[in-house]
Structure formats: C-alpha cells, structure tokens
Predict the structure.
Amino acid sequence: MQGEINGLKTLIINDTPSAYCIHCFAHQLQLTLVAVAKKHYEAEQFFDILANVLNVVEGSFKRREMLRDDQAEKLEELLVLGEVHTGSDLNQELGLQKAGDIQWGSHFKTVRNFISLFSSVAHVLGVLAIEGSNYHERSMAKSLVDDIRSYDFVYMLHLMLKVLALTYDLNMALPKKRSRYCKCNEACWF
C-alpha cells in the first residue's frame, strides 16, 4: 500500500514540480485543512460561530422541530411556485450535525447543509432571540443571528464550502485504484 502512495506522489511531483503532497486517507486532508485554517483568526472565529449555532439550534427537540417545520414550509412554497420537483430521492430532509473529528467528510457536509438551511437556521435563531426561556438564551440567539448574517461570516461560509469541496472530491478520488492519478489531477484544478 505504501508503495502505491509513493508512486502516486512521484507521478504528481513529476507532473507538477511545485506541488506539495500530503498523504491523506479518509479524513486526514480535511482535518489538516481545518486545523491549519483555525490558526487564522477569522477562520477560527467562523468555526466557533458555526459550532455555537449548531449547539443552539440542535440543542433541543423543540428547536429541531422548529427547523424541520420551517424547512417544510419553504419546500411547500417552492413546490407551489414550481421551483422544485417531486420524485424519488428529491427534496430529502437535511439536518445539521457537528463536524466531528471522526467523520472525514463531515466538515464539508456541515457547511453545505448550513448553506442550504441558512434561512431556516436564521428563523429559528430569530424566534429564540424573541421567545427564549431566559435572558442568556435570548442574548445568545440574538448574537448568533447577527453573526451569521454578517458579511464576514457569509464570505467565510462560501469560501470554506469551495475549499472543503475540493478536498472532499480529492478524498473521494484517492481511495479508488483505477485512474487514481487522473482523478486526483482533475480534482486539483479550479
């Protein structure tokens, strides 16, 4: 196995001498990327806000239900307008999950789902900011809704989606034996 990886690394370096190769099985590349990004203040702040939002929104059954209900309303509106179609494997329910250190694609999936559910998440936080059970809960929700609506957060959200999508595609291509080099090479080009 080690020889195959060294062979791939050699092919990449021969093709692109300026390439920096990292051996990555499963989640190592994405975890490394996230760990390096967290050394940058804005990226660390982005991941902290994202984790706090996930903790608040997914923190209780009532909030998860509120998120599901808002999603269902929006989907119903889109169906009436003809913006989405029904069928097998279409319009699947999305959920928010914390990006764990075990699931190698989880950072990408968390960011992707967060973007898809952005308006529903903002709605749940807005309701909590008004109807929270105590001052701390209302204050936290208000702060988080302001944070996720800021330009910096939205910019980082989309930037991280693009970067994590590249590493996700690369991670999907690396474990396959056939035409590994070609797939990795294609995944690296913008």
About this structure: Residues 1-5, 21-26 have pLDDT under 50 and may be disordered. Residues 45-83+101-190 form one domain. The chain has nine helices and no strands. The CA atoms of residues 56 and 78 lie 27 Å apart.
